[in-house]
Amino acid sequence: MTIEPVTDLGSGGALRLPRARVVSLSAPPASYTAAVERYLTGAGIAKSSARIYRISLTTWGWMLTGEPAPTGPARRGAKPPVFPITSIDDPALPEVLAELAAARADEMDADTVNRELSIARKAIGWWQRQGWIEGDPTIGIERRPAPPDRTKALAENQIAALWRLDVALREKTQWKMLYESAARADEVLCLNVEDLYPQDKRGKITAKGGATEWIHWQSGTAQLLLRLITRRTRGPLFLTDRKAPAGTPTLDVCPETGRGRLSYRRAEEIFEENTRLLANPLASPEDIEDLDGWTLHRLRHSALTHDAEEGASTPMLLARSRHASVRSLERYARPGVDSVARHVVERDPAARRRT
């Protein structure tokens, strides 16, 4: 960024302040999609986070062209729009974008909307610093209030019902690993076979910020992993059902089967679809299309909450969650529904008399 020199005085003899002018550090990419990839690489976004960032920025890609982003099944296979990154400076865009963002906020949960807005602003700020764009069309779009959900931790009977579902081995292994390791879903989906240490029941993941860390699991995951991997020695751990399409990055293709790495979006869809009746126990199976299931994050939340209920120490919870701050544990340290129910029953005077 350069500063233009002061050449005259303003009205009344007041000194006119210099005006900042952004100088491009490099030529702008040919398209928004290319700018997204340049940001993910240049800003040092960890591989485990890059998938979520790419999905969120693709969603914003539609809205930055003045079109609502597709949702639900319509999003799968939808090709993002192609447009130059410089079109973000269109002076008419902020007003249109605010309307589209408000409409999306009415359809999505507040946490998702706020996360996507935060990711978009980080990318826009990075593009501004490169000199590719000047303005931020998201200015004026406010974060949505997100009241805390006290029911995110699944009850013991809900976890047991999840394990009884008739699903593919891939899903059984993935869900069991998420719960037993308390790892983030994107971290687990980025695992490769060569990252696993089966005899030690642990694996090496790339965490937030790019740090390499360990996750640990129990016998349930260990037994399923042996069946899932069979004789594979390298490549993505969790694979798609079909061959990877042309152009898929080599790191996301199994060299032995040719199948691609399972995406976060698809893994989330499968989990949500299979848990709709578990999440709505009074609903009729005929209404399943209109129901909402659970999110993969609830497995991590449940594991850490159950650890806290069983008396896990603060250092252990920090190690399991891999959070840097004790304050971040507050959301998990709240006793779950089963723990509260036992507490009430144990202090029921009538129950004590019967005993």
- N-to-C order of helices and strands: EEHHHHHHHEEEHEEHHHHHH
Mean of pLDDT = 85
Distance between the termini: 77 Å
Counting DSSP H or I runs of 4 or more residues, the number of helices is 14
Helix content: 40-55%
Q: Report the radius of gyration as a whole number of Å.
A: 24 Å
* Spatial strand sequence of the major β-sheet: 3-4-5
Which word captures the global form?
globular
How large a portion of the residues is in β-strands, by DSSP E?
Answer: 5-15%
Structure description:
The chain has 355 residues and is mainly alpha-helical. Helices cover 43% and strands 7% of the residues. The strands form three sheets. It has a three-stranded antiparallel sheet, with no helix packed on it. A hairpin with a 4-residue loop joins strand 3 and strand 4. The radius of gyration is 24 Å and the shape is globular. About 2% of the residues have low confidence.
Structural topology:
Blueprint: E1 2-3, E2 20-21, H1 32-42, H2 47-64, H3 93-107, H4 110-130, H5 156-163, H6 169-181, H7 185-189, E3 196-197, E4 202-206, E5 212-216, H8 219-229, E6 239-243, E7 259-261, H9 264-274, H10 276-279, H11 297-309, H12 314-321, H13 337-346, H14 349-354
Antiparallel strand pairs: 1-2, 3-4, 4-5, 6-7
Concise summary:
The protein has 355 residues and is mostly helical. It has helices at 32-42, 47-64, 93-107, 110-130, 156-163, 169-181, 185-189, 219-229, 264-274, 276-279, 297-309, 314-321, 337-346, 349-354; strands spanning 2-3, 20-21, 196-197, 202-206, 212-216, 239-243, 259-261.
Keywords:
3-stranded antiparallel β-sheet, 355 residues, 7% strand, two-stranded antiparallel sheet, mainly alpha
